[in-house]
Amino acid sequence: MRRHTIWVASLAFLFGCATGEKDTKKSETRTVQEQAHQSLQRAAEAQKRAADEQAKVEKLQQEVTQKQKELADAQARLKAQIAKAEQAQHDAQEARRQADQETSQLQQQASQKQRSETQQIQQLNQEQQQTWTQEKTVSGRVLQAQGDKIEVRTPGQDVLQLQVTDSTAVRVNGQLASVSQIQPGSEVRASYQVVDGQPKALVIDATSKASGQ
Question: Rounded to 5, what percent of the chain is helix, strand, coil?
């Protein structure tokens, strides 16, 4: 009886040990599984973060590519604008050169024209001066004499009107007289100068018909 009890007790002990060992192994397996699950979860989270960071990198790379394209376009526009500005500057310089050349030519032409006009005026003045200082004579009969004018009919039947001034020397029958003392029909001989197209008497010598008879 005692042996049976001992055997039963031994068997219970062995069964208990086996059961405890089995529970321990289950607990260890569960722990390993949980650790593996946690590791997988951490790996998945790390992979997600890596994917997010890669997406950011790709987005930034797209932005960089776009900015590089915009920069290339801007550089191309800048190069074209520089070329246009240089051409405009060249055109402006050429226009200035042509304007300076035309201005110089116009100034030369104006100077030549002015010199020519001055010479013409001087020549005209000389001619007028010669005309004014050239003394002419006329003889004929007095048609009328009054005020500051005297009309003389020449032998060729031309009528010449002489202007009498304060400096005109008037003589009638060899005596100093005035224009009003000259009678129509008197013989007259006069010297004059043409000034501004007007014959101005210098000396008038008249002989009345009574004296001539």
Answer: 65, 20, 15
pTM (2 d.p.):
0.41
The DSSP annotation for 1-18 comes to -HHHHHHHHHHHHHHHHH
- Span 32-44, pLDDT tens digits: 888 888 888 888 8
Is there a contact between 160 and 176 (Cβ–Cβ < 8 Å)?
no
Give CA–CA dist 187/198, Å, rounded: 22
In the three-class reduction of DSSP (H, G, I as helix; E, B as strand; rest coil), residue 188 is classed as strand
Q: Which two tokens stand for residue 155?
A: 């032998």
Residues 191, 202 contacting (CB under 8 angstroms)? yes
Q: Which CATH number fits domain 135-212: 3.40.50.720, 2.60.40.420, 2.40.50.320, 2.102.10.10?
A: 2.40.50.320
